TrEMBL record:
Pfam families: Mob1_phocein. GO terms for biological process: regulation of hippo signaling. This is MOB kinase activator 3B isoform X2. Keywords: Kinase, Metal-binding, Transferase, Zinc. Signal peptide: none annotated. InterPro entries: MOB_kinase_act_fam (IPR005301), MOB_kinase_act_sf (IPR036703).
């Protein structure tokens, strides 16, 4: 990792405080295991598979929080170049435009500049991962019945951050020497959501060609 990149990723550029897993809990152990496999340079395809005997919801919860933190950080490194002037719409090239809807202020899908979309998205995810009724931290408290549906929506929207960064801001990623880091994060994300069947194939279309080259 280049020195410049170390500085970028050591400055805590995430917009928000990270959700931590309590040491000693089952989820903390899973988090450590997921981190260790990522850091050891092992086969990412194998690393995302549900460990035998582990609960699927626990495994998904750990990864959703981890991806939120990582993708937040990636966007944080280029956000000063993603402005209402450079990115007046949240898009992934000319064919894909993403509109924001949250059933609160934006009850209908609304076209927004990319930075505004990103802020709303990160807030929307953060509220959910910090909600004990959705992401319980205490052992023994069950996940809600619709937990996987909630995670599918979170992951689908996080994927759009990759789409926007790769298509509109990858030149900045390269200048900062962060290409390998972002690519590894993307591969990890892609293998996980496809292994666990958490994202609709049509959502993956915007990065299909790049993905076929990068993820064999």
């Amino acid at each position: 990792m280049s020195i410049a990149l170390k500085q970028v990723f050591n400055k805590d550029k995430t917009f928000r405080p990270k959700r931590k897993f309590e040491p000693g809990t089952q989820r903390f152990e899973l988090h450590k295991r997921a981190q260790a496999s990522l850091n050891s340079g092992v086969d990412l395809k194998a690393a995302v598979q549900l460990p035998s005997g582990e609960d699927q919801n626990d495994w998904v919860a750990v990864h959703v929080v981890d991806f939120f933190n990582r993708i937040n950080l990636i966007y944080g490194t280029i956000c000063e170049f993603c402005t209402e002037q450079t990115c007046p719409v949240m898009s992934g090239g000319p064919k894909y435009e993403y509109r924001w809807q949250d059933d609160l202020k934006y009850k209908k899908p609304t076209a927004l500049p990319a930075p505004q979309y990103m802020n709303l998205l990160m807030d929307w995810i953060e509220v959910q991962i910090n909600n004990e009724d959705i992401f319980p931290t205490c052992v023994g408290i069950p996940f809600p019945r619709n937990f996987l549906q909630i995670c599918k929506k979170i992951l689908c929207r996080l994927f759009r951050v990759f789409v926007h960064v790769y298509i509109h801001h990858f030149d900045r990623v390269i200048v900062m020497g962060a290409e390998a880091h972002v690519n590894t994060c993307y591969k990890h994300f892609y293998y996980f959501v496809t292994e666990m069947n958490l994202i609709d194939r049509k959502e993956l279309e915007p990065l299909k060609e790049m993905t076929s080259r990068m993820c064999h």
